[in-house]
Write the structure tokens for this entry.
Amino acid sequence: MPKLKKHFKSASDIKVGVIGYGGAFNMGRNHLKEMKRAGMRPFAVCELDPERLKVASKDFPGIETYTDLDTMLKQSDVNLLVHITPHNLHYKLAAKCVKAGKHVVTEKPFVLTTSEADRLIALGQKHKVVVSTYHNRHWDGWIMRAVREIVEKKTIGEVYKIEAHMGEYGMPRDWWRTSRSVSGGVLYDWGVHLLEYALQVVPSEVVEVSGFAQEGHWAGKMKPTQPWKHDANEDEATAVVRFANGAMLNLSVSQLRSDPKPSQIAFYGTGGAYEMAFWKGWTTRKPNRKGELVEKTGKHPGDKGHLYYQNVADHLTGQAELVITPQWARRPIHILDLAGKSAKQGRALRAKYG
């Protein structure tokens, strides 16, 4: 990370705000509450819907409210802005905030393309501000235990393959996340989480990515009035990643998956396997001295997603290195970007960033 233009004396000196306070998942409120838990001070909200601004004022009495980002950047003393907007707006709005000297966190995904990531990283370095993305699932209980067992204890030997899958059979919901030009595609929502999990476990650089896609099935059944009927996400997309150490990752997200298996990520090693069924538990399979596979199961430990903003606050006060650097956030975006291009070109593409 570049040297910051300044460090704050304490977390309470950091004035924080959100761009977007929509009703879906109450993400604006949740972000402000998590930042407050880390000691930072909720200070401003920017939201197009005046009714949602009323909700924000009720949730955080005295908070500044704006319906226009340019006005906020000119008038507010807010120090850190979190972007809770559709994916295709992340770069454009974040760049504007960085140029105004504000520290920036985008909701995941970081941005949509490698080029956008490069430009945003360069801007952050130029203006000496923090640029990060909200990878709070970096501290999910299931991946924290997996890292401890697989990376630190070498419980399953050397990881040679990862299978990461998410999906179901059914038409996508009628909202902006269904639009490929807005969302980035079917891989970008949960796929970015699955990749971030995997990259914590594989101690190697990405060499190349192959992408595959099935599309048109659900788009053909959408209502003519749906604005993204001709801009629909893929029905299913896959990214196959090859690492320099020989390991490979198979990531797929689907709206055509018809089997009953739970969403999961599985790590296969030279000495066994470690599987995570989200919200259910973990399973290990290892051979005993007779060569028989012995299965063990258990529950995931609790999540510690609050450590994301705690780390941001500690970094801004000069007490810790930033965990989710923009360079780290760029890694899954680069894979997704290459996968989309590979699917169109019909060939594997070399990675620029490992």
User: Anything to note?
Assistant: The chain has a mean pLDDT of 94.
